[in-house]
Amino acid sequence: xxxxxxxxxxxxxxxxxxxxxxxxxxxxxxxxxxxxxxxxxxxxxxxxxxxxxxxxxxxxxxxxxxxxxxxxxxxxxxxxxxxxxxxxxxxxxxxxxxxxxxxxxxxxxxxxxxxxxxxxxxxxxxxxxxxxxxxxxxxxxxxxxxxxxxxxxxxxxxxxxxxxxxxxxxxxxxxxxxxxxxxxxxxxxxxxxxxxxxxxxxxxxxxxxxxxxxxxxxxxxxxxxxxxxxxxxxxxxxxxxxxxxxxxxxxxxxxxxxxxxxxxxxxxxxxxx
Length: 273
Description:
Layout: H1 18-35, H2 46-55, H3 60-73, E1 75-76, E2 80-82, E3 85-94, H4 101-115, E4 120-124, E5 127-132, E6 135-142, E7 145-153, H5 155-183, H6 191-237, H7 252-264
Antiparallel strand pairs: 1-3, 2-3, 3-7, 4-5, 5-6, 6-7
Helix pairs in contact: 1-2, 2-3, 3-6, 4-6, 5-6
């Protein structure tokens, strides 16, 4: 009799490496944490984030450190736009403590280095500000800390786009009027509205093309400035590190004198019985 065929071998269970496991479990853990508090849309608390991190093998202290780094960068306010293009950007961050005079001076130096402009300083009581044209940085006192507001507006792009639209609309209006004049037997100079339309398109396009990259650069600069200012204030809030206790010094002179005295001492004689 022929032997029964061997059953097909079962595939070996698939094993995941640690990074892949963390990446696959993090969304599920976050969804579980969010499902525990329905109707809440302000995000997760630090404890919930640490619980999500523990589910994928991340230590709570690393989650807290990452959360502090995100807080130090602040939050970007909605952009001011024109025809969907970013015309102004801003960022607000609540510093982890009060902004001292020294921290404000270092922030001003950082602003001048970042934007390559001296700017103008102004202080009204506890309110401080640094301005350079449309670029404004304000430090406002809040309860137990300071809030840093940074905002800017691309005025040159705004003027170029508005001027381009005016020329474009004016050229179209002239085209319509010249069209009516052409119907009456006169031959109007159509090159005038053509020049206006082309100039309007050129002005608008030149200003519009630069806006996205300009807005991204300003947001990146604001984020870096907020992070550095928060780190300086947080460092000032930390207690100073304890100095190591001084070890007692060995008096080599006294030790040498003791050795000489021991050598000079008479050796007792032993008698033979």
